[in-house]
Structure of Root hair defective 3:
Amino acid sequence: MDAFMGRSQTTKGIWIAKCAGLEPCTLVMDLEGTDGRERGEDDTAFEKQSALFALAVSDIVLINMWCHDIGREQAANKPLLKTVFQVMMRLFSPRKTTLMFVIRDKTRTPLEHLEPVLREDIQKIWDSVPKPEAQMETSLSEFFNVEVVALSSYEGKEELFKEQVANLRQRFFHSIAPGGIAGDRRGAVPASGFSFSAQHIWKVIKENKDLDLPAHKVMVATVRCEEIASEKYTSFTSNENWHSLEEAVKSGPVAGFGKKLNSILYTSLSEYDAEATYFDEGVRSAKRKHLEEKLLQLVQPAYQSMLGHLRIETLENFKEAFDKALKGDEGFSVAARKCIETYMASFDAGYAGIESF
């Protein structure tokens, strides 16, 4: 906003961007102001939709609050807070979102005097919000971590304001580490599933349906784990080592067949595990089992070929040894028993070498 051009709306809708130079990878979302004149006082639908969306996808929600509004009954952000708390009740379970109140244009009143008043106002709003019967006794702290920070006036103390903003930014480094600003977040969606998750959440919100986040989490996990499993299956079918092994076993026994095949299978399943590790455990395990079954079904013909080669080779060796034994001094039954024991053991040893998983 250019102050010399007058006052007007600076954010329209919802904007998302990746923070530059911030670890871990952090996305920042800027929401349209809730008390702007552009939409008019009667158009609160988007306000509620965007508030619910922010709460559903964010680990930290920053709320700008003018310092002079603290302690006022009709403060500009009180309707927003009520909306935030009301829509949070529609989420199936607490997510432990961090609500950070950024006090703007701080006066000479010390923060330690401002913060208790603000926290008291927040608690009053929470207590006044209608709650489902199952959450009547739920405390504010079960849903939110409340943080309060203060910034000086940009116009009156520009350098101090910039310094304070830089200090605030530092708090977002390693934000999800234990003790970090979002260190105790719950139900985070893995980055690879974020785009799909956010699209689905917005669709549900626009259709004015209740948002069941645990069910949504399972749905996202189902879609993504299926995609990952499909990618790993396709990758296996085009693997050159697998093709070479498959062709070689058609013409005869392959030394180290089982070890080679297990190595290729293990690589595919390990890659699946690595990419699916942060999704719902039940879904992840079920999709992994299905992938393993599909891969074993795919390699079954090669496995059967190798088993056939082993059977033929063992039988030929048995016949040769049995013929020699019969030409010697041993009787038929003794020779048969010894040869059968020897070559059944040989077959079992060979089978152990080709067995996969």
Summary: The CA atoms of residues 267 and 353 lie 19 Å apart. The two ends are 63 Å apart (CA to CA). The mean pLDDT is 82.
